[in-house]
Amino acid sequence: MVKRIQFARTGGPEVLELVDVATTDPAPGEVRVRNRAVGLNFIDIYFRTGLYPAPGLPSGLGTEGAGVVEALGEGVSHLAVGDRVAYAQGPLGAYAECHVLPADKVVRLPEAIDTETAAAAMLKGLTVQYLLRQTYPLQGGEIILWHAAAGGVGSIACQWARALGVRVIGTVSSPEKAARAERNGAWATIDYTREDVVERVRELTGGAMCDVVYDSVGKDTWETSLDCLKKRGLMVSFGNASGPVEGVNLGILNQKGSLFVTRPSLNGYADTRERLEAMAADLFAVLERGDVSVDIAQRYPLAEADEAQEALAGRRTTGSTILIP
Ligand SMILES: NC(=O)c1ccc[n+]([C@@H]2O[C@H](COP(=O)([O-])OP(=O)(O)OC[C@H]3O[C@@H](n4cnc5c(N)ncnc54)[C@H](OP(=O)(O)O)[C@@H]3O)[C@@H](O)[C@H]2O)c1
């Protein structure tokens, strides 16, 4: 038997329960990983609340973890029992002592990267990889706006963008978060709960505005984000921390300067083993060079996943959060 967090109905953190389930053997093409650390991500909250539907209930939760390969299904040749590995993509069920998942979603860790760092960096770091290097291949010299710059994804993004020679204007909700984002390499910060974001971006850029806006806050920031772009700039809407963006009139993109908009996801980029491995190699390289260091600002026992999620949803976390089985 192994312990896992599951939910039988959608709702608040109280629907999460710690249960004992039978250990399952991996089917052909699958692998069983003994988790050493599990990543906490905002997407876990979307599944718990039902914003994103789980394939069935009761359901496990979580898609990110790192640990050691314990068993291999038939036909898996790129991994071996005992390998230290990490993963960031479904199926749901990473909040557990063990997780069985398709081997194609699992990558081997280099010596230099420990399992806690991997669990804290895999989903968020692969996301930053595709956002900065693929969705808009930044060359250096651009100015970008990044909302929630002191959060998990934001903390990695500030550091990686700085290493690419990109100036990041980061939005945050407190002076402490501003200081943290600036330590991580943000060129400037704006408190979007108090300041006029568009005016501040205009001042900071001398009127030029931003090449790209990365917006994971969603509903509350959508229109402000569009106003922070230069003509023909790119709006990357990649999350819904304040609720999803709905009812968009495409004409607004014309009115605000022939803007581009995309709504990407990690699964749309790391969609084959080859692409996942190339993206992970890029992430591991910035970690090994020290361009990016992962700030594990919160650690919770697996059994306290509900409290961890409350803290994340309540804007009380910074950097990455991991659960320890
Ligand atoms: N599309 C993808 O591929 C992909 C992949 C990974 C993550 N994401 C998205 O990226 C975002 C960041 O994920 P994360 O796990 O690293 O979380 P996080 O940034 O550590 O936490 C979310 C942050 O959003 C800000 N926020 C603004 N309005 C909020 C509200 N109404 N409720 C809660 N938070 C609010 C808060 O920062 P302030 O207090 O500074 O405002 C909060 O700390 C999430 O929206 C997530 O869904 C998308």
TrEMBL record:
Residue span(s) of domain Enoyl reductase (ER)? 11-323
EC assignment: the record states 1.6.5.5
Domain of life of the source: Bacteria
Q: Which SUPFAM superfamilies match?
A: GroES-like, NAD(P)-binding Rossmann-fold domains
Q: Per the record's keyword annotation, is Oxidoreductase included, yes or no?
A: yes
Write the record's keywords in alphabetical order, separated by commas.
NADP, Oxidoreductase
Coiled coil regions, renumbered to chain? none
Q: InterPro entries attached here?
A: ADH-like_C, ADH-like_N, ER, GroES-like_sf, NAD(P)-bd_dom_sf, QOR-like, Quin_OxRdtase/zeta-crystal_CS
List GO molecular-function terms, semicolon-separated: quinone reductase (NADPH) activity
Q: What Pfam families does the record point to?
A: ADH_N (PF08240), ADH_zinc_N (PF00107)
Q: Which NCBIfam families match?
A: PRK10754.1
- Alphabetized PANTHER family for the sequence: QUINONE OXIDOREDUCTASE PIG3-RELATED, QUINONE OXIDOREDUCTASE-RELATED
Specify the protein name: NADPH:quinone reductase
Organism the protein comes from: Halomonas koreensis
